[in-house]
Design goal:
Layout: E1 6-15, E2 19-22, H1 23-27, H2 34-41, E3 45-48, H3 56-71, E4 80-84, H4 95-103, E5 109-113, H5 119-132, E6 139-146, H6 156-159, E7 164-174, E8 179-187, E9 195-196, H7 208-212, E10 219-220, H8 222-243, E11 253-256, H9 261-270, H10 282-285, H11 292-300, E12 309-316, E13 320-327
Helix pairs in contact: 3-4, 8-9
This protein binds oxa(dethia)-CoA (UT7).
């Protein structure tokens, strides 16, 4: 698709809670081992947000504030705030409203977007639409999840996987050939039961019974999701590469959702990518749901150069999945113009 104005990423921000939950800590809580967790998932530790009055908006606001500082702009310049999350502070109001108030984005509107582990990818594409259409000049896209708030720390099948974090990007118009180039995005609601949180919504409002039955925690059929995630992520990434005439050598980095290192390795192999060209930080943070992808961009920001071709790929509950081809818009040392 040809577009005169594209949505380019012009800054990245993040927030990581200080508390670390290591594999060793988890061996004291459930029947597991450091060896099992590392070999099956690649995770060594995750961050946990502790403290009262600390929800997803707390982390999201701090990621946003880092962006304002780096970009040298004030909050009143922001037009739209999109927060991807499945662990909003409350069912309503939207986390985006709480972030808007916290950072003082007096001219912004915004909303939350729920697409589980594909949340950031879908929010990035939604935000890009506002830029491409000319309806906004500065869109803040935040992925923030406090997975510890919906994790059952007596269930070894899920509690070893998740962590808390927020990260964000700023989208601005670009007419020089950088930014979001193309995307393949999908949902398949038939798979919803394999990865969900049953309680707390309108179908199963909270009751003593829903609490007793542990319906307010993540439920995952790991094996099923693993199989479908590998195929889903690889299929859309390869489709995106083919229709944009990209080979493995043309891609500077794959930016994958960090759910399991074995899934990421399999997707990279299908894309014919050298492992050096894969952003991988799951060992340090675990699966932070909507935050994994912008957290990778943050961790690799200093190495990225203007014109680098990135393929972002995600798979999550819903099912939701997709891949986006992003041409990076700035060198870290040089402030984006
Ligand atoms: O981010 C959104 C999308 N989510 C994903 O992409 C996650 C996809 N799934 C996965 O990453 C993997 O399926 C898991 C990491 C969740 C599980 O790995 P697995 O290799 O598929 O293990 P499994 O569930 O088949 O379990 C194998 C064995 C079982 O024991 P038995 O029945 O064979 O005796 C489990 O009970 O490993 C056992 N097990 C554990 N053992 C030690 C499960 N969890 C643990 C644990 N420690 N933490």
């Amino acid at each position: 698709m040809r577009r005169s104005t594209r949505a380019a990423v012009t800054a990245v921000g993040h927030f990581l809670p200080e508390t670390r939950l290591t594999n060793q800590d988890l061996t004291q809580m459930v029947d597991t081992t450091d060896e099992w967790i590392k070999s099956r998932t690649g995770i060594e530790e995750r961050r946990i947000l502790k403290g009262e009055s600390m929800g997803v908006s707390y982390m999201a606001s701090r990621a946003a504030q880092e962006i304002l500082k780096k970009r040298g702009m004030t909050a009143d310049e922001i037009d739209v705030i999109i927060v991807a999350t499945v662990t909003a502070d409350m069912s309503f109001p939207a986390t985006a409203c709480l972030v808007q108030a916290e950072i003082g984005a007096t001219n912004a509107w915004g909303f939350d977007l729920s697409a589980a582990c594909s949340g950031f990818l879908f929010a990035l594409n939604t935000g890009a639409g506002f830029i491409e259409s000319g309806r906004a000049e500065k869109v803040l896209v935040i992925g923030s999840d406090k997975m510890s708030s919906i994790t059952d720390y007596t269930d070894r099948k899920t509690c070893v996987l998740f962590g808390d974090a927020a990260a964000a990007v700023l989208l601005e118009p670009d007419s020089q050939g950088y930014g979001l180039m193309d995307s393949v995005l999908r949902v398949d609601g038939k798979g919803w039961e394999a990865l969900c949180m049953l309680g707390g919504g309108s179908l199963h409002p909270p009751t003593h019974e829903t609490v007793d039955q542990k319906m307010h925690y993540i439920h995952q059929d790991g094996k099923t999701v693993f199989r479908i995630a590998v195929k889903g992520m690889a299929d859309v990434a390869v489709e995106l590469m083919e229709r944009n005439d990209l080979t493995g050598d043309d891609i500077r980095y794959l930016v994958p959702h960090q759910a399991n290192q074995r899934i990421i390795d399999a997707v990279a192999r299908r894309m014919d990518l050298d492992p050096q060209r894969v952003m991988l930080n799951i060992s340090r943070y675990g699966n932070t749901t909507a935050a994994t992808i912008p957290l990778c961009l943050h961790d690799w920001e200093e190495q990225l150069k203007r014109g680098d071709n990135l393929v972002i790929a995600a798979f999550g509950g819903g099912y939701t999945w997709g891949a986006t081809y992003l041409r990076w818009g700035y060198d870290y040392a040089v402030s984006p113009s």
